[in-house]
Amino acid sequence: MRATTGPRENGTWRGWREATEEALYGPCGFYRGPEGPAGHFRTSVHASPLFAGAVARLLCRLDVALGRPGELAFVDMAAGRGELAAGVLAALPDEVAARVRAYAVERAARPAGLDARISWLAEPPRAVTGLLFANEWLDNVPVDVAETDAEGVPRRVLVGADGSERLGEPVGGADAEWLRTWWWTPSAAPSEGTRAEIGLPRDLAWADAVGSLDRGLAVAVDYAHSAGRRPPFGTLTGFRDGRETAPVPDGSCDITAHVALDACARAGGHVTTQRAALRALGVSGARPPLTLASTDPAGYVRALAGAGAAAELTAPGGLGDFGWLIRPVGVGDTRGAAPADGDPFGALLVDVSDDEEQ
Q1: Could you report the per-residue pLDDT of 84-99, keeping only the tens digit for each?
Q2: What does each C-alpha distance from 237 to 137, 145, 194, 253, 317 come to in angstroms?
Q3: d(CA 180, CA 186)
Q4: How far apart are CA 80 and CA 133, in angstroms?
Q5: 72 — phi, psi (to 5°)?
Q6: Which residue from 136, 58, 50 is spatially nearest to 313, judged by alpha carbons?
Q7: Residue 6 to residues 109, 158, 164, 165, Cα–Cα distance (Å)
Q8: 133: CB partners within 8 A, 6+ apart
Q9: In angstroms, how far is CA 303 from the centroid of its own chain?
C-alpha cells in the first residue's frame, strides 16, 4: 500500500504504532473480544497438542539444567486464553508439575474455567527462574511504518481509522538509526515507495521480557525475516475470521507484521527455525512403519495422525519456517551464541531419563 499526501476529511492522522495499540488493546480492542485469537487465526498452539508437549519437554530439560529448583516458572507471553499454559501443565510429569508456577501474560480478562494453577497477569512476573515462552507475541507489539518519498527520505506513515494513509514527518532519532542498522543498510538503500516496519519497540519489549528472568531461558517464536532479506514493501497486514485482510485500525481485525528477530537478538541469543527446534524436542513428521498397521492397527492410526500434525508444525513454507529466538539467562551459554554442534538448545538439551538414572 502506498501512502498518499492528500488531505483527509473527518478524522485524525496517527502513526501506525499509536493506532495499532488502541485497535488491538484499547477498551474495545481486537484482543479484548471474548473469542480470543483462536477465533480468528490458528497458531502452532492451536494446530496440535504436540506443540505444548514439545514446550513441556523443553521445560523439563531446562529444569535439569537449573538443578531442579524448588519453584520452576513457566511464563506464557501473549497467552490468548491460556491454551499453551494449560497444555504444558497437562503434559508435564507429576514431579515437575508439582514445582511449576505457571503464569499467563495477557491484557484481556482471565477466561472462565482456566486451570486454577495458572496465574493471570497483565505483565510478566519479575525475578523468576524458569522458561519464558512468547509464541506469536512480538508480531503484535505495535510498530510504526516508514515509507521513502520521491527524494529518498524515509517518512513516517500516518493512518486514519478507516485504514487510509498519508506520509508524515521524516523518521529521525533512534528510529532512523534502527532503520539504517537493521533494514535499509548501505547495501539495501531504499527507493521511492519502499516501506519498512520500525522494529525498535519490539527490541525493547523483548529485552524487558528477558530481564524478568533471574535464571532460565527466554524463547520467542514468530513470523520473521533477517537482514538482507527484508521485504521491500513491509509485511503489515490484518487477519479476521481466519483470513488475511487489509489492516484497518478500528478494532475489527488483528494487525500484525513480521519480526526482525535478528535485531531482537543483538543483545544475546540466536535464531533457528521451528522445524529445527521441534525436531530437537522430539517432534517428527516421519510416517510410522507399515508393519505397525498389521500388528497394532489402532496404534498405527494414532501414529499416523501424530505424524500428520507434526508435519504441519514443521512444514517448509509454513509453520516450520517460523523463527525461534533462543536466549539463555544465567544457564548454559549466557551469551546465547548458536551452539557449535548445530543443536539449537546446546547444553540445555540433555536426556532427562539418562540424567535421572545417574
Answers
A1: 999 999 999 999 999 9
A2: 15, 12, 16, 10, 18
A3: 8
A4: 13
A5: -120, 120
A6: 50
A7: 40, 12, 11, 9
A8: 55, 74, 75, 76, 77, 84, 218, 219, 221
A9: 28
Show the DSSP H helices in the chain as ranges: 16-25, 44-47, 49-65, 83-91, 94-97, 173-178, 200-211, 261-264, 274-280, 291-295, 297-314, 352-357
The rounded distance, in Å, linking the Cα atoms of 205 and 25 is 16
Rg (CA), the chain: 22
Sign of the Cα torsion 314, 317, 319, 322 reads positive
Q: Using CA atoms, how far apart are residues 22 and 15, in angstroms rounded to an integer?
A: 11
* Sequence-ordered strand ranges (E) for 199-251: 213-222, 237-240, 243-245
Which residues, in sequence order, are bridge partners of residue 118?
A: 102
pLDDT tens sequence across 155-212? 999 999 999 999 999 999 999 999 999 999 777 778 899 999 999 999 999 999 999 9
Burial class from Cβ neighbours inside 10 Å (0-12, 13-18, 19+) for residue 280 reads buried
Q: At which residue does the C-alpha cell 521491500 appear?
A: 232
10-residue block means of pLDDT along the chain (358 residues)?
A: 50 93 93 66 82 96 95 97 96 98 95 96 97 97 97 96 96 97 83 95 98 97 94 94 92 95 94 93 70 59 63 87 94 65 66 41
Q: b or e along 6-38 (b: 16 or more beta carbons within 10 Å of the residue's beta carbon)?
A: eeeeeeebbbbbebbbbbbbeeebbbeeeebbe
Say how far apart CA 44 and CA 49 lie, in whole Å: 9
Nearest to 106 by CA among 48, 54, 43, 36: 36
pTM over 0.90: no
pLDDT at 334: 55
C-alpha cell at 158: 500516518
Span between the terminal Cα atoms of the chain, in Å: 60
Cα–Cα distance, 38 to 51 (Å, whole number): 15
From the number of C-beta atoms within 10 Å of its C-beta (0-12, 13-18, 19+), residue 126 rates as exposed
Residues in the chain: 358
Q: Cα–Cα distance between 63 and 44 in angstroms, integer?
A: 23
Distances (CA, A) of 96 to 93, 100, 116, 219, 341: 6, 6, 17, 20, 28
